[in-house]
Amino acid sequence: MPSEMFSKSRREELALGPANRRPKNKPTAAKARITVAVRKKPLTAEEAKNDTDILDVVGRQKLVLHETRKELSGTTDKTTQQGFQFDRVYDEYCSNLTIYKSCVRTLVDSMFECGGRCSCFAFGQTGSGKTYTMMGPRKRGGKQEDSCSRGLWEWAAIDLEAWMKKPAYRERFVLAISFYEIHSNKAYDLLNNRNLVRPMESAEGGVVVKDLVIRVVTTEAEMAEVIDLGNSVRSTGKNSRNNESSRSHAILSIELVQKTDIEYRLAENPRAENPRAENPRAENPREGAMGDRNGKLSATALQTALKEGRSVAVSVRGKAHGKLAFIDLAGSERGADSVQFGRNTQQDGANINKSLLALKECIRAMDQGKDHIPFRDSELTKVLRDFFTFANGLCLMIATVASSSTRKNAH
Ligand SMILES: Nc1ncnc2c1ncn2[C@@H]1O[C@H](COP(=O)(O)OP(=O)(O)OP(=O)(O)O)[C@@H](O)[C@H]1O
Ligand SMILES: [Mg+2]
């Protein structure tokens, strides 16, 4: 991965420099915390030959669905139009960068300026462009096809780095990143070879994912490396709509954490088997050359461990200053999309739909300002609990829609 992923002109295009920008969307009690945007996917070359485009974007907020139905007599076709209003609608010519600038950047700003809990979901039918939106048109194996159409995650990484360079953050904070997927209601760590991890409720009423690998980053290049690593092991499968369908919900979690709240330990602590081995003269047998009595590494011990190429585990204690999560949801499926792909695929599809329903219920409860958010109904909503319950949160749902007439039942 090149250390400088983005050219200078790209950076200028983004007009980086958080100091120059104030978030327009500072969450307040009176303001809606949920934004719903829709992105229309263009017809593929194949679809353009045989199908018609049934979606029109009108202005910045309206989507019109054209439907052709047979009259009851069965002889003539009747075309109807239905208009839908959203906070923002993007047409098929719109790039990931435009989406980032117009509605995602405010989440990044809010995380720093307001200590917000901000979430960005890509939601939609299988094959409608969720992963394309979050990750960009990426070739399998992790590398981008071209630098102009990176995913939202990567555009955010540039701003995150810019924020982290500001003295107020550089001195005191780091970004703690984790990347995991929920597949069949189980969580797997994408930064640790899909190791099974367990989301649990913390004593403070939050959520911790036990055994999840956390990576500490400050630059966009480090973040890109983490994302590439995770993407390379993410579960994909085939259905009738997408040869590389994401079969899981992928969650990239970014936390702004005080440096003093980060703890480093040797991933495999040799003192666990023979506590005196490293420092036989230590008064306390658990106090070795590396780490204190609890195994926590000091700054010097951390440097030594890293120089020796030892694997270091990171944990975070205390509350994060701000949180941002990008969630690339698995596609909602109709039975017909997976019917010819066997029982496992169908079971996957059923699990995906079930967890999406649980998510919908949480978002609805949040929107209605209810005290009770039913986040315990699925593993997906359990791990996102903080984002639903925290008062100072922004939630962006990007619904991706395919415009081919053969997909109209999915809208
Ligand atoms: N806006 C777009 N412009 C051009 N091509 C797109 C766009 N959105 C999606 N595609 C292409 O459509 C195909 C399916 O997209 P993608 O894998 O992102 O769908 P998905 O919604 O993530 O599906 P699933 O739920 O099955 O994972 C890919 O080949 C992708 O490159
Ligand atoms: Mg996908």
Automatic annotation (TrEMBL):
Q: Where is the Kinesin motor domain?
A: 33-411
Primary location group? cytoplasm
Known Pfam families for this protein? Answer: Kinesin (PF00225)
Q: Where does ATP bind?
A: 124-131
Entry keyword set: ATP-binding, Cytoplasm, Cytoskeleton, Microtubule, Motor protein, Nucleotide-binding
Q: Where in the cell is it found?
A: Cytoplasm, Cytoskeleton
Q: Which GO terms describe its biological process?
A: microtubule depolymerization; microtubule-based movement
Q: Which domain of life is it from?
A: Eukaryota
User: Region (Disordered) spans which residues?
Assistant: 1-33, 267-294
Any GO CC annotation of this UniProt entry: microtubule
A GO molecular-function annotation: microtubule motor activity
Record field: transmembrane: none
The record ties this protein, via InterPro entries, to:
Kinesin-like_fam, Kinesin_motor_CS, Kinesin_motor_dom, Kinesin_motor_dom_sf, P-loop_NTPase
Q: Name the protein family.
A: Belongs to the TRAFAC class myosin-kinesin ATPase superfamily. Kinesin family.
Q: Which PANTHER family match?
A: KINESIN-LIKE PROTEIN (PTHR47971:SF8), KINESIN-RELATED PROTEIN 6 (PTHR47971)
According to UniProt, the name of this protein is Kinesin-like protein
